[in-house]
Design a protein that fits this description.
Largest sheet: 4 strands, antiparallel
Radius of gyration: 13 Å
Number of domains: 1
CATH architecture: 2-Layer Sandwich
Structural class: alpha+beta
CATH topology: Alpha-Beta Plaits
Low-confidence stretches: none
Number of helices: 4
Distance between the termini: 10 Å
Number of strands: 4
Order of helices and strands: EHHEEHHE
Strand content: 25-35%
Strand order of the largest sheet: 2-3-1-4
Helix content: 25-40%
Mean pLDDT: 96
CATH class: Alpha Beta
Shape: globular
Length: about 100
């Protein structure tokens, strides 16, 4: 069953963001993941959610998502993001 990750980030360091993005799609693909959409132009329709950057990722399964997220290859990127950005993420299986 496909799994989707929705994430938002507000980067505080442009160089760190550039480093994070280098080879990101290739690493995702290694775990079956892909970026479906992403933008810094986000319009809030309801509520007070105002993400600076929003992205939607797709993985073949939750297992594949967790394999990517906890991988040794992603660990340095995760540390970079946690140090230089405020971010929130959710992951879920497609239940519909």
């Amino acid at each position: 069953m496909p799994a989707y990750m929705v994430g938002e980030a507000e980067w505080h360091d442009a160089e760190a963001r550039r480093k994070y993005g280098e080879g990101h799609s290739e690493l995702l693909a290694k775990y079956g993941g892909e970026i479906l959409a992403g933008s810094e132009e986000v319009e809030t329709i309801e509520g007070d959610w105002k993400p600076r950057l929003l992205a939607i990722f797709k993985f073949p399964s939750l297992k594949d998502f967790h394999a990517w997220y906890s991988s040794a290859e992603y660990a340095p990127r995760l540390a970079l993001r946690r140090e230089h950005a405020d971010s929130k993420m959710v992951v879920f299986e497609d239940a519909w």
